[in-house]
Amino acid sequence: MSTSRSFTLELGGILAAVAAALLCGSVVIMLTSSEPFVAIRAMFVDPLTSMFNIGTILNKAVPLILTGLALAVVFQTGVFSMGAEGQLYVGAFVGSLVGVYFPAVSPWIHLPLILLSAIVGAALFGAIPGLLKAYLNADEIVTTLMLNFVAILTTSYLVNNPFKAEGVGGFARMEYISKDVLLAKLIPGTNAHAGILISLAAVLAVYLLMYKTPIGYEMRLVGKNANFAKYGGIHTRKVIVISVMLSAALAGCAGIVETLGIQQTFKDHFSTGLGFDGIIIALLGRNHPAGVLVAALFYAYIQVGAQTMQFGSDMPREVAVIIQVLLVLFVTSQAIFAYIHQRLSRPKAVN
Description:
Blueprint: H1 3-32, H2 36-44, H3 51-76, H4 84-101, H5 107-136, H6 140-160, H7 195-212, H8 214-224, H9 226-231, H10 236-263, H11 274-284, H12 289-312, H13 318-345
Helix pairs in contact: 1-2, 1-13, 2-12, 3-7, 3-8, 3-10, 3-11, 3-12, 4-5, 4-6, 4-10, 4-11, 5-6, 5-10, 7-8, 7-10, 7-12, 8-10, 11-12, 12-13
């Protein structure tokens, strides 16, 4: 099968999965709402009718793009990491420490230091499951899931005790980061911030890394066939560790960008499952940077649509969760059928 035809079929399958999920969601609304057409309009049209809603979509898409890229990188290497949520917390916490406690310097120096510290801190934390997978063959699903709890609970303890801001009562957070290094607003009248520019730069960087560099080729080759890559002279263990660390770095970047753009400091349990949403984004985008970008924007659009529907009709926002779950089921089942078709279409060995 040609590359163009394969891409067309892949894109068609994804669009069909999205259409099927949206159709099922609309059917649920039609069956349960007393004003179904008002609810459908509020869900699918209203998010695009005001600049404020569009800005909200962009803000929600930013961490989804970065966590989606994080998971796409590691999935392409054949490592099924579930650790983006914990790595996101580590990046946000380490970056916030630099933002709050680093001596006052120019914002042109301070902001890059905050971003760099978050990325490096998360990458080092990601090295733990990477090394365990590469050298001890530890199951990465188990190790990354367990390390999520380590990261979240450790940062929770620290922000509730030694780094807790004074006078905040029971709501644990650090001192606020200086406004000079917070991400600037891009669209007047909205909360859309410069994190969207960082996420777009990350999309380009990941694309160039994965498809235009030797290490990117090695990562993709290891993901397709680790034994073949090993026999071809590729140091598969090193590639696995690098991929997990790069994934963690992107997740950490998502954490600190969300902090600088929305939270303005590190807050206890600030994430709404952004690391796990990244898994859905990576699957929907087929682990391609461009696909991740589109999937994240669509996912954010559905989330904002759920909010506008709840405020503008008699339907709760949980309908969006139904659409998201159906989307995952349709996309993953499509992947299963593609795998079965690939296996059945292989030429049989001649005795």
